[in-house]
Amino acid sequence: IFMVLSLLSIVYGALRCNILSIRIKYDDYDVRVKPAAYLCIFLWRSFEIATRVIVLVLFGSVLRIWVFLVVLLNFLGFCLYPWILFWLSKSPFPENIEKELSRVGTTIVLCLLTFLYAGINMFCWSAVHVELSDPDLISKSQNWYRMTVYYIVRLMENAFLLLMWYIYRTDFYLYVCAPMLVLQLLIGYCMGMFFMLVFYQFCHPCKKLFSSSITEAFLSC
């Protein structure tokens, strides 16, 4: 019961972040989110987060040491990614976050922001993307290429972790139909991707402002 309540609260938080990011990106327009959009986001985030957590738990139950390496690589990768983009952009160091902050304080705030960004992306696609070269510290453009790469790599990673669990599973899972469980989790993650596509294709409140539909964008990617 507590796990279900925790999952629902996290999914609700992800849903609110999605709506907030839409309002931030399109603050010049009157954004009206329909009930169908709320439903698609809820199902998208539910399948995505739940399957990701279950995959990590299963993998960690048989390879306890290696799960720390997986989590660490994910965390460091997403944490360093905004800093690498900032370094490649050769933009000046952000100074307008808070006037009372020194350069060291600003650096600490930016590090905490990237830590939060990395923690979210370990489990689901972040609704708001950190861009240190932007004065608002967030990217307001819709990058279909990053989203495509993220979901393809994440699906491959989940499949690999499930394969490792299937190979090294213990007698504790003797009465569990392992192939069916692996198939259900992979289908569950694909269902999350499906509802994400439905949201951007049909239910996004500002879909008319997109330069191309999400199916065309994914095919081009």
TrEMBL record:
Q: How does it sit in the membrane?
A: Multi-pass membrane protein
Q: Which UniProt keywords apply?
A: Membrane, Transmembrane, Transmembrane helix
A Pfam family for this UniProt protein? Answer: XK-related
The entry's cellular-component GO terms read:
plasma membrane
Keyword Membrane included in the entry's annotation:
yes
Q: Where in the cell is it found?
A: Membrane
The membrane-spanning stretches of this chain are 36-59, 65-88, 108-128, 148-168, 180-202
What's the family?
A: Belongs to the XK family.
**PANTHER family the UniProt entry points to:** ENDOPLASMIC RETICULUM MEMBRANE ADAPTER PROTEIN XK (PTHR14297:SF8), MEMBRANE TRANSPORT PROTEIN XK FAMILY MEMBER (PTHR14297)
Protein name as it appears in the record: XK-related protein
Organism equals: Rhipidura dahli
